[in-house]
Design goal:
- The chain is α/β, with parallel strands linked by helices.
- Among the domains are: about 70 residues, no CATH class; about 130 residues, de novo design (two linked rop proteins), CATH 1.20.1440; about 170 residues, 3-Layer(aba) Sandwich (Rossmann fold).
- A hairpin with a 7-residue loop joins β7 and β8.
- It is globular.
- GO terms for molecular function: ATP binding; DNA helicase activity; hydrolase activity, acting on acid anhydrides, in phosphorus-containing anhydrides; nucleic acid binding.
Length: about 625
């Protein structure tokens, strides 16, 4: 594959001067001749990115829908990757956006064909997007679920056959199994307790094969924000342990839908303690021949752990979403500290157990690694610091989550160092023309920025209808709208709100609706795009969903997208002088603009927005109307 810079370097010009000329020639002439639309906004954005590359600075690039942001960043990213000899990373908000970027009719493919460039593009997906062969085997042994047999039948022959590793190929990603429900996938995918380094079939694991594949990328690595943040947080520890970082050294990073990076950073820093995981792991190593002292410590730890979770459940308060607020007390703290003490004692005993070889080495390694993470998490919970913690119920199991609050300082230290150019691309990075909200939340001190409007004639292609009424009236109005045959995306603020609305619909309307969570998101989006589904309910797809032309002609925003009343956002509110103006309102306005942006994706699109606003929020209508592309009809 050619790795040449896609333009000629000359002696009397720097690389950046040559890049500037090439961008102009390509965007004004070459692509226009191939049928691409010449857009001044796109050209301006490309030149701003070129300047950010030269300065090795952070660029907040806010460009409206229809600007052609993807091509504006792909061209300089490709050239810079080949100039530096290191691939560029394009980080997307989620797996759905990745699929849209790399699809056959996507911008990368179009660009490659138009410019006769062979672009080396490789995917780096989050670890939970891969099948774990060990977990698949365990699930197969304990259940008769039909989906397990289907997945096993589709596994490549080389996994268990005695064949050369030269015949292996990447396999086993979530998108390969669109028929699986989310809860089914979560029974067989990678889980953090798995010890890949000690796994006897890691060389034939789909995740390992994918890792080896994308590390050899020349031009572009496409990943999710979650994955990039996981790479950032684990890079130093993986190197200390003699492992490769999740990503190779790269030349630059583009964060597409970059306004969502903060939440990915928080997720990557969040530690989990499940109610049943430690029970399952310890019971797994309670084998014949284990020393009495180790056995007694394990039983004591399980008793304390059970009492600790009993306390959590009894003192947890329900919020707007799945995050429950924990009301801490002395007994809860005592049990947490006791669990830490017993876990440390148990780790000391495992040193002797390892020398006896009674416990299988792989199982013992998993338990040791898990206990170290368990100790760290429980200490973080029990210490009087500014960590944020909450309880969630997942698949009938309670899970404690703990997140250090220092996301901004860690990002400042590990990402925004001034050593690598970083581009944030989105239609919504500012709040009423100010970038302060985003910069402050990410810890960005020095940056370049610009904001350009969408080139679309919204006045003639979009109507926004205000729907005002109490909740029950809104359900009735929603039913009336859905009875009209139209490709409709309905956006909700939470899964709870979505399911409540779905369950209150008449049965004859329920059959028209596909809702997020009933199967893989990518398959739902594909069916909706192909008009096999008329109505799509979602609580995540406020941004990034690209459904042009007749695929989507109406967007219904059923809830104003305020952040939830939960421990995570409550912590942010505590550190704000005016919680509503500094946290809730900016978040809602950004997300609202994104949701509205789903409707008009090309110059041929037209349709309507229905915005539901309950009476108690009517005082916000003036500020809402200021951020709308067109006034209310």
């Amino acid at each position: 594959m050619s790795t040449k810079i896609p333009f000629q370097l000359v002696k009397d010009q720097t690389f950046f001067e040559s890049l500037n000329d090439w961008l102009g020639d390509t965007l004004y002439d070459d692509l226009t001749e191939k049928g691409f639309e010449c857009r001044d906004e796109q050209i301006y954005m490309a030149f701003q990115i070129e300047q950010a590359l030269k300065d090795k600075n952070v660029l907040l690039a806010e460009a409206g829908v229809g600007t052609g942001k993807t091509i504006a960043y792909l061209l300089p990213a490709l050239a810079y990757a080949r100039y530096t000899g290191k691939p560029a990373v394009i980080s997307c908000a989620d797996e759905t956006l990745i699929d849209q970027l790399i699809k056959e009719e996507g911008d990368i493919q179009k660009l490659s064909q138009a410019l006769d460039l062979s672009i080396d593009v490789r995917l780096a997906k989050a670890r939970n997007q891969y099948i774990c062969l060990k977990r698949l085997e365990e699930t197969s042994n304990r259940t008769d679920e039909e989906f397990v047999d289907l997945v096993e039948d589709e596994l490549p022959d080389f996994i268990y056959a005695d064949r050369s590793l030269q015949s292996v190929f990447p396999y086993g990603v979530r998108s390969d199994y669109p028929y699986l429900k989310d809860e089914e996938w979560e029974m067989i995918n990678y889980h953090p307790i798995q010890q890949c380094a000690a796994c006897d079939i890691r060389n034939r694991c789909g995740q390992t094969i994918h890792r080896n594949h994308y590390r050899e990328a020349v031009d572009l690595i496409i990943c999710s924000h979650d994955f990039y943040m996981e790479h950032l947080w684990t890079k130093e520890s993986r190197v200390r342990q003699g492992q490769l970082p999740l990503l190779p050294e790269v030349s630059m990073v583009v964060f597409d839908e970059g306004h969502l990076l903060e939440y990915s950073a928080q997720r990557a820093l969040t530690y989990e303690v499940q109610e049943q995981t430690i029970v399952q792991l310890l019971e797994r190593i309670m084998v014949d021949g284990i020393r009495e002292k180790s056995l007694q410590l394990m039983e004591q730890l399980l008793d304390v752990h059970e009492l600790f979770f009993k306390q959590l459940r009894e003192h947890a308060t329900q919020n707007d979403n799945e995050r429950l607020t924990i009301n801490k007390n002395d007994e809860m703290m005592r049990l947490a500290k006791k669990a830490v003490s017993l876990s440390n004692e148990l780790l000391e005993e495992f040193v002797f157990e390892g020398e006896l070889y009674v416990i299988p080495e792989y199982d013992l390694k998993i338990v040791e690694e898990y206990l170290e993470q368990y100790i760290y998490s429980m200490e973080l919970f029990a210490d009087q610091n500014d960590a944020v913690d909450w309880l969630e119920n997942r698949r009938d199991e309670s899970t404690l989550l703990i997140m250090p609050r220092l996301v901004t300082s860690i990002l400042k230290e590990k990402l925004f160092t001034g050593e690598m150019p970083i581009v944030f691309s989105s239609a919504t990075l500012s709040v009423e023309k100010s970038f302060d909200y985003l910069a402050y939340s990410l810890g960005i001190e020095s940056y370049q920025s610009f904001s350009i409007e969408s080139p679309f004639d919204y006045e003639n292609v979009m109507k926004i209808h205000l729907e005002q009424g109490v909740h029950e009236d809104n359900i009735e109005r929603l039913s009336m709208l859905l009875s009209e045959e139209e490709q409709t995306l309905v956006l909700f603020n939470s899964k709870q709100s979505m399911m409540e609305a779905y369950e209150k619909l008449p049965l004859e309307l329920q059959v028209l609706v596909a809702y997020e969570g009933e199967r893989s998101l990518s398959s739902l989006v594909k069916d909706f795009q192909q008009r096999k589904v008329q109505v799509f309910f979602s609580y995540h797809l406020w941004e990034g969903l690209d459904l042009p032309n007749e695929s989507l002609t109406r967007v219904i925003i059923f809830d104003l997208p305020f952040p939830p009343k939960d421990p995570l956002f409550e912590a942010r509110r505590q550190y704000a002088e005016d919680a509503f103006d500094e946290v809730d309102l900016p978040f809602m306005l950004l997300r609202l603009r994104q949701g509205i942006g789903r409707l008009i994706r090309t110059s041929e699109d037209a349709g309507s927005i229905h915005l539901f606003v309950e009476p108690e929020r009517s005082e916000l209508l003036p500020v809402i109307e200021r951020v709308l592309p067109v006034p209310f009809s």
